[in-house]
Each structure stands twice: as C-alpha cells, then as structure tokens.
C-alpha cells in the first residue's frame, strides 16, 4: 500500500483494479469458506427483521446450497457482486471471523486440561478451515434464526429448521457448528459469573440470558469477550434480556426433534447410519471427517448428536477441529477412546 500511495501511476492502477484485488484477497483468505461468507453477508439484512417470511429464508438457504455446489467456480460467482459488497465481506472477516478463529482455537485448547493446557501452535490449513467455516455457519444460523424464538415467528417447526439448515452439512460439520455454540455458551457463562460478582447478586434466568446473548452471533460474542465491565450480554440484545434465548440451538438438535426429522425428512446420512457404513479416516482434507470425529464414531457413519451443551464433553476442547498430529500430541485420542460420547 505504501507503493500505491507514493506513486500516482500505481494509485490510478489500484483504483482501476480495486475490485479484482479485493476479490483475489477474499479468495486467498477465505478459500472454500467464501461461499459461507457470501451467505452471511446476504443474511445479515434479515437479522431481526420481523417482516421476513418463511419463504424468504427458504430461498436464501436454497441459494446458499446452490452456491456450495459450484464451489470450484467461486471466482465467477463473486464477479456478480459489486466492490462495496465485497468490501463488507472483507471487513467482517478482518474484524470478527479471522481473529475469532485463533481466539476460539486458544479457548478450546485451554479447556483440554485447564491445569496444564497444551501449548498453542499455528493452525494448519485444514484446522483453520474447519474453525472458520463453523464460525461463519454459526453466524448464518444466528442471522436467520437468532433472537426471540425467531424460528417460531417465521413459521418453522423445529424439525424443519433441523432439516432445511443443519442437513445442508455433513454430520461432522454440524458437530463443528455445535462445538462453536458450546464454546460461546461457556464463555458467556464465565462472563455472567464475573458480572454477578460485580453486581453482588445472582442474575435471574441465566440460561435464557446466555442463550439470548449467544443468539446474536459473532459480533455479540466479540463484544462479550472485549467488554471488561461484563454488561454486554444484556446490552447486545434489544428488549427484555429474559426473553427465551435458551433453546436457540440445543432445542433444534434435541433427540426428540432429531427423531421426528428422520421420520419426515430422511437423508442419505440417515441411511448410511442405518446401514452402518464404514467411515474411515482418510487423512486431513476439508471435505472429510477429522480424526477425532472418526474416533468418536468408532469408524462408522453416525448422524446423531448429543444436544446437552451444559454437560462436560469433548466438544468443550474442540475435538472435531484438530488434525491427527495435534490430537495425538495432546493425547486427545486417548481421551476420546476412554469416553463414551457419540
């Protein structure tokens, strides 16, 4: 940029090619997650808008799914968007998604063994992609369904939300999203306890407050992390902070809802689980399950989730995100083999 500012010729060329430079920067920074980032940017206009109808959300998810199918053509896809739109995507990545990826990785690892937390080392490409896409998908869910029982206002049944949103992803990718939500809940609870100490009394309806704060996505989470006075969980939500935020995601992934969804909307992943198809570890690839997921599933296809975010579990330390080398280095593979979780 210093060269661009110093030379009028370079500056003129920069102005002419600014959109191409921005698009190239996004593709290099986000890679395959750019499809998720585009969906989040479009969904941001729907957040909190009570005039939005169920059909609009369905159309948005259908468009998102169509874009995911043409992932190799992402360069041609982003040509449809103007420079300002791409700039907003870049700014969200720079301000929230990128720093939270590293911050969440540190949080997860610190919870593996709080007495002797593993040393954090740079994320691999696959680890970064798993975490980054989970953050964007968590944000997408919060844009579409966050707030005061938003899915009910939109006319969705819980099993429909499970099918139309979560069934867009492979089972281990759903686990990635739910692991991020578990972390957000845990960190919100920590800050709530800090707030209670400052206020010298307990906060009523704490799970509703925490779930409600979590439902406002990455901006709300970032605000809570950087708020030294710990009051952001109340201020980031408009209206009454006691409105039902509890159930923002865990109700959708409850066992009852999962069973009902299977009866109404059977998927290929359901059939693979019924057949007990093998699920081998094939190495570190963004489209394949991580070593931790394969261990938890005992090498067989599973499309069922434990919905309890308030009980200690391997989700607390982000088992589904880590490459095999990191998992074995921190002895996470041994912990997974000795715990019944799936």
- Note the run of SSEs as H and E: HHHHHHHHHHHHHHHHHHH
Beta content: under 5%
Task: Give me the secondary-structure category.
Answer: mainly alpha
Q: Provide the low-confidence segments as ranges.
A: 237-246
Given the C-alpha coordinates, what overall shape results?
globular
- So how many helices? 19
Largest sheet report: none
Radius of gyration: 21 Å
The residue-averaged pLDDT reads 84
- How many individual β-strands? 0
What is the helical fraction, as a range of percent?
55-70%
Report the span from N to C terminus.
50 Å
Characterization of this structure:
With 342 residues, the protein is an all-alpha fold. It has a domain at 26-69 and 92-265. Helix content is 60%, strand content 0%. It is built from 19 helices and no strands. It has helices spanning 2-6, 8-16, 18-30, 34-43, 54-69, 74-78, 83-110, 125-145, 150-153, 158-164, 171-199, 206-214, 217-226, 232-235, 255-264, 268-274, 291-296, 324-329, 332-338.
Keywords:
342 residues, mainly alpha
Task: Produce the secondary structure layout.
Layout: H1 2-6, H2 8-16, H3 18-30, H4 34-43, H5 54-69, H6 74-78, H7 83-110, H8 125-145, H9 150-153, H10 158-164, H11 171-199, H12 206-214, H13 217-226, H14 232-235, H15 255-264, H16 268-274, H17 291-296, H18 324-329, H19 332-338
Helix pairs in contact: 3-7, 4-5, 4-8, 7-8, 8-11, 10-15, 11-12
């Amino acid at each position: 940029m210093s060269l661009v500012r110093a030379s009028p010729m370079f500056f003129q060329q920069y102005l002419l090619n600014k959109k191409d430079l921005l698009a190239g920067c996004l593709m290099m920074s986000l890679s395959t997650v750019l499809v998720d980032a585009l969906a989040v940017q479009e969904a941001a206009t729907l957040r909190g808008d009570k005039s939005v109808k169920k059909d609009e959300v369905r159309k948005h998810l259908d468009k998102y799914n169509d874009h995911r199918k043409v992932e190799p053509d992402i360069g041609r896809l982003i040509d449809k968007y103007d420079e300002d739109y791409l700039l907003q995507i870049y700014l969200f990545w720079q301000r929230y998604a990128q720093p939270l990826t590293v911050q969440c990785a540190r949080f997860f690892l610190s919870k593996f063994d709080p007495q002797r937390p593993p040393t954090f080392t740079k994320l691999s490409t696959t680890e970064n992609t798993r975490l980054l896409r989970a953050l964007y998908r968590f944000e997408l869910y919060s844009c579409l369904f966050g707030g005061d029982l938003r899915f009910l206002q939109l006319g969705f049944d819980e099993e429909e939300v499970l099918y139309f949103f979560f069934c867009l992803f492979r089972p281990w990718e759903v686990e990635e999203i739910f692991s991020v939500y578990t972390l957000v809940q845990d960190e919100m609870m920590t800050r709530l306890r800090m707030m209670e100490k400052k206020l010298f009394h307990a906060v009523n309806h704490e799970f509703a407050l925490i779930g409600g704060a979590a439902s406002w996505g990455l901006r709300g989470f970032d605000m809570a992390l950087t708020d030294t006075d710990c009051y952001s969980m109340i201020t980031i939500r408009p209206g009454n902070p006691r409105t039902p935020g509890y159930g923002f995601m865990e109700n959708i992934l409850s066992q009852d809802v999962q069973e009902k969804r299977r009866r109404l909307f059977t998927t290929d992943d359901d059939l693979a689980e019924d057949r007990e198809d093998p699920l081998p570890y094939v190495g570190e690839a963004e489209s394949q399950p991580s070593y931790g997921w394969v261990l938890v599933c005992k090498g067989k296809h599973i499309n069922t989730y434990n919905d309890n975010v308030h009980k200690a579990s391997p989700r607390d330390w982000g088992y589904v995100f880590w490459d095999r080398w990191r998992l074995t280095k921190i002895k996470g593979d041994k912990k997974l083999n000795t715990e019944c979780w799936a």
